[in-house]
Amino acid sequence: MSLTDGFEHHLSASPEDYERVLKNGVVILDTNAILNLYRYTTEARKELFEVLRSLDERLWIPHQVATEFWRNRESAASDLDYFGNELIEELQETRRQMERSLRTWSNRVALQRDHLQTLLESLDSAFQPTLNKFQEIAGSRSEGKSRNTFEDPVLLELQTTLAGKVGEAMGEEEHKRAVAEGLRRVEEKIPPGYKDKSKGDQQAAGDYLVWAQTIKEARSRNCEALLITGDVKEDWWRRESGEIRGPRLELSKEFYSEVGYRVYMLRPPRFLELAREILNISVANETIDDANRVELSSYDIRERIDTASAVLASLRSDLLNYIKGGSRLPLDGDPIELANDSPALVGLFHKDSLVYLAFTTSTIRVLRRWHRKLSGRKNITPSDVSFVAAPVSEEQVDDRVLLHGMLTEEHPEWNSNGFGNYDPGRLRVYRGLREDHFDLLYPIDISIDIPRLAGARNVGQAFESLRGYAPYRINMSLRDLSKVADQEIDSGALSGTVENCLRVLTDALPQGWQTTVMPGSIVIEPLLKDVPNAQLILRGARINEADGSGPPNKFFGDL
User: Fold this and answer.
1) What is the C-alpha to C-alpha distance for residues 394 and 378, in angstroms, rounded to an integer?
2) What pLDDT, on the 0 to 100 scale, is given for residue 555?
3) What region holds the PIN like domain (predicted)?
4) pLDDT at 497
C-alpha cells in the first residue's frame, strides 16, 4: 500500500492528468458554461465550438444541464439586449441632463436664442454619432435573433455539437430519490448545491442532479471525468488562501468511491488553454481573454447578488431579533419624549404580539402620531400598546426590499389591516371594510372630551379648532369650507365631547349638508346620502327650517 492509496482525492491535478482525461475521459459541460456562450464575442464562440467538436464522443452533458439550459435560455439570450438598452437609456439621460444644464445657464446669462440653438446642435453633432455607433455594435453583438429558436445562432450550433451527447432523463422513481437526496444535502450543507438553498423547491437540488448524473455516466464509461463549469461557489470548489485548488475533497472522494476514477474541474478559460496545448487546437489569446472577461463579469454579478442577499438576510434577522428581544416601552408620554429621535425601525406590540413594523427618519414624530391615533379609538388605548425602536441608517429607512422581507417573514397584523392609512381619500372613505380592518376593530371615539372652543365665532373657525383637537381626521374640502366658513355658530355650546361639537357645527350648516362619522374618519360635505358603515349621520338644522320636515339626525351606535 502506498501513501496515496485511499487518499487520491487529496492529489492535485498534474499536466499528465489533464492530458489523460482530455484524451480518454468524459468532458462534461455545466449549465452556466453553456449559457455563457451567449456572452462571448462571435470569434471567441466560434473557436470554443471548434474545441468542443474536437472532443467528439468524449463530450457529454447531463440531462439536468439540458433542462436548466432550456429554463434559462431566453433570459441568457436577452442579457445583451437588456444591458445594451440600459446603457442607451443612461446615455440618453446624460444627453438630456447636458441640455437642461445648457438651458439653465442660457437663462441665467440671457443668452440669445440662436446662440443657444447653436450650442444644442453642437451637442447633438457630438453625441448622436456615438449613440448610433454603440447601437450598431450592440446590435451586432446581440445578433437580434436569439429569442427565436430557429434563428438563434448559439442554439443552432449547440444542437449540432451536442447531437447524441445529452444524457437520458432519470426515471420517475430515480428522479424522486435524487431530488430528495439533493434537498437533504442542501439542508445538511453537503456538497454540491447547498449554496442554492434560496432557490427553493426542486431547483435547489439541481446541482446534485447534475452531479449524480455525471457519476452515473462516468461509471458506465468506466473512465475519469472533467467538469467544465463557470460556477465558483464554495459548494463545488476547494479553496486555500482564497485560491481555487480543485473540486471539494468530499466530491473527489465520493466520485472515486463510486466510479473508481478521479474527477477534475476546470473553468472555461483554463479549459481553452489546456485544449490548445494538449489537443493542438487553434485558440487565439483573444478568445481566452474573452472567456476570462465573461467569467469575471459573471462571477462579479453572482458574488454581488450572493453577498447582497446574505447581508440583507443577516440584517433582517438582526433587526427582527432586536425588535422582538428589546425592552418594550409603553406608548405613552415620557417614554415617547425620551426616545432617541433618529432613524429607526419601530415595532409596535399589542397583547404581547408584534403587530406593526415601520421605518422612520424621526422616531419621536412617528410615536407621537401613533399615540394620537390610538388615543381617539374605542376598544384600545395607547397604554395597551408598547414599542421597541432599533436604530438604523437613513439609507436603510428607504430600503423597501428590507422592510418587505421582514413583513413577509413576520406578517404583523396591523401592517395589512389599514392601521398605517391616515388619509383614506374622499371616495374610499365610504367603501366597505374587511372584518379585520383596523377601523372596524377600533373605530374612532366621538365621545372623548376636548377643550372648549371658546374662540370660534363661525363655522370656519369651529372646524379648524375641532380638527386640531380631535385625534382623527375630520375632512372638508377647501372649496366646500369656503362656502360656509362665515356662517355664524353658537360658540357657547362648543364644548364637551367631539360629538357635541359636531352637532353644534352641523346645526349651523345650510340645507343639503351632512356630517358622516365613519369608522375611521369624519366627513363634512354638501351631499346627503345614507352610509351603511357610518357610526353617526348628522344633517344641517336648516334642512328642517327650510321645509319643516327634513330628515332627522341618525345615530347608528357602536360598531
Assistant:
1) 35
2) 45
3) 26-251
4) 93
pLDDT tens digits, one per residue of 88-138: 666 777 777 777 777 877 776 777 888 788 878 887 777 777 767 666 655
Q: Which of 414, 451, 464, 408 is nearest to 436 (CA)?
A: 414
| Gap between the Cα atoms of 522 and 541, Å rounded | 18
Q: Phi and psi dihedrals of 340, rounded to 5?
A: -75, 110
pLDDT of residue 420: 83
* pLDDT single digits (tens) 428-479: 555 678 888 999 999 999 999 988 877 788 999 999 999 889 999 999 998 9
- Residue whose grid cell is 395597551: 384
Cis upstream peptide for 192 (omega within 30°): yes
- pLDDT at position 252 over 70: yes
The arithmetic mean of pLDDT across residues 216-239, rounded, is: 89
Tracing cell 415595532 back to the chain, one arrives at: 347
SS3 542: helix
Query: Are 255 and 271 a contacting pair, CB within 8 Å?
Result: no
In degrees and rounded to multiples of 5, residue 379 shows phi and psi of 70, 5
- Spatial CA neighbour of 25 closest among 274, 359, 194: 274
Residue range 282-296, pLDDT digits in tens:
999 999 988 888 877
Q: Look at residue 425 in the predicted model and tell me its pLDDT.
A: 46
Can you say how many angstroms the Cα of residue 245 is from the centroid of all Cα atoms in its chain? 35
- Which residues are within 8 A (CB) of 160 and not within 5 positions of it... i.e. 6 or more apart? none
CB 61 within 8 A of CB 166: yes
Q: CA 301, CA 303: separation in Å to the nearest integer?
A: 5
| Sheet with 474-475, side-by-side order of all strands | 474-475, 522-525, 514-517, 536-539, 554-555
- Please tell me whether residue 376 adopts helix, strand or coil conformation: coil
> For residue 66, how many other CB atoms are within 10 A of its CB?
17
Look at residue 222 and give its three-state secondary structure.
Answer: coil
SS3 sequence of 303-344: HHHHHHHHHHHHHHHHHHHHHHHCCCEECCHHHHHCCCCCCE
pLDDT computed for residue 548 by the predictor: 39
Please determine, for residue 546, whether its predicted confidence score (pLDDT) is greater than 80: no
Partner residues linked to 28 by β-bridges? 60, 227
Give the number of other Cβ atoms within 10 Å of residue 267's Cβ. 20
Diameter of the chain by CA atoms? 116
**Residue 271: is it exposed, middle or buried by C-beta count within 10 angstroms (0-12/13-18/19+)?**
buried
Cβ contacts of 377 within 8 Å, gap of 6 or more: 442, 443, 444, 445
- State yes or no: pLDDT of 10 exceeds 60: yes
Under DSSP, the state recorded for 354 is E
The Cα 269–Cα 33 span in angstroms is: 10
- Angstrom distance (rounded) from CA 470 to CA 455: 16
In this model, does residue 556 exceed pLDDT 50?
Answer: no
